[in-house]
Input
Amino acid sequence: MKPTQIISTTRAIFFGGNLYGIIQKLPYLEELGVTCIYLSPVFEADSNHKYDTGDFLKVDEAFGGDGALSDLCKQAKKRKIRVILDGVFNHVGSNSVYFDRYGRYGSSGAFTDRENSPYRDWFTFRENGKYDAWWGIELLPAISKDSSGYRDFICGKDGVISKWMARGVSGWRLDVVDELPDMFLDPLCEAMKRERSDVFIAGEVWEDASHKIAYGERRRYFLGGQLHSVTNYPLRDAIICCVKDGDVYKMAAVMASLCKNYPKKTLDSLLNIIGTHDTMRILTALSDAKTPDDKPAMSRFKLDPQELKTAKDRLLLASSLQFTLPGVPCVYYGDEAGMEGCIDPFNRYCYPWGSEDTELISWYKRLSALRREQDCFKNGAYTLIEARDGLFAFTRGTGEERVLVAVNVSATDITMTAAAAAGFSTELLRSGSHCASGNDKDKKHGSSGALYIRSNEVGIFK
Output
């Protein structure tokens, strides 16, 4: 979660959705091609976003309680879908059982009883009565990660990690992982791997995490014992610059850097995001619209028909890159249904059941099916073919088992070089209303994209 001042008028608005509702929608998620659900925080908390944890040992009753999470994990497993939780371990809520600033839980909170509370050493209090808060937000008292009591509570044999993984949780996304020192992150990851050998651990990092330096310390996320993946924000930025601004050179440069810096197994596991709860909705971000600066206007902002069409055409290309470049596509709920929205919290509206963009949903289903059909998109080698004049083309795979992905983000037609197009003649998928036909696939028409595979290897994907 990016540090932003919490706005009371938005954090206290509730809409009634719960984990049982997700269970009801598992058929839709399965049909969409989802194999893993990453949930935002589910533990008891005052706010709707739940990043102000009140009790790590309770699923919020508004979401259905502990039983609802267990049921979700069981029902999802039947459909070969895993469930990952958001681990928010840098801070808690001021109105939590551990801090209890307002006396809700009795007399054992660190704020209520600063001398005798069992949670006293979790927090840092100042002589002036103030306390360390996450990014200065008093609603979020910061945790002292060198507290052995806190480490045992989270990572111990019967701790928080153990409880929820025993309920069926398959992994964790660690919020602001660069603020978790190794002395806490090591036992945290060890606790997760102790519970199940196939646990998936991802961290929220906004930069290239392979050589991340945080608070003067070089991180060793991928040197063994810690993370499997991180959020791939550098790729998100490159994709937006590519399909919106035509900057195929940045696209090529970012991919070259990622391939050079990350271990291959990590590269293939990066969470390829183009929209998250911390960013503007991707459809809005890809438009040419000037978004408002004040929050009341943001809450009402919608793209006009032409802006929406332009953004949607670009989203077809952006999602193509998201699904075919190295990494795992991570789709923010509703992006596949055409949801719009400015920055947080106006990117968190309810899913538009009954008014979805069915054309976009169909497109995402086709992309998901393509990944299932073509193993090269899971771990095949990435090779840049061309990056020039609005054309970005690359292959995935090895030897003859390769797929060519070509995207033209310019307004004009571009002919690929003969060498680049050689051998790729079976069309798998295309976007854009003016794409080339099968017999002139070496020519890429403006604002279009297509995927090809070498001849006689698979049938045409429709």
About this structure: The radius of gyration is 23 Å. The first strand starts at residue 36 and ends at 38.
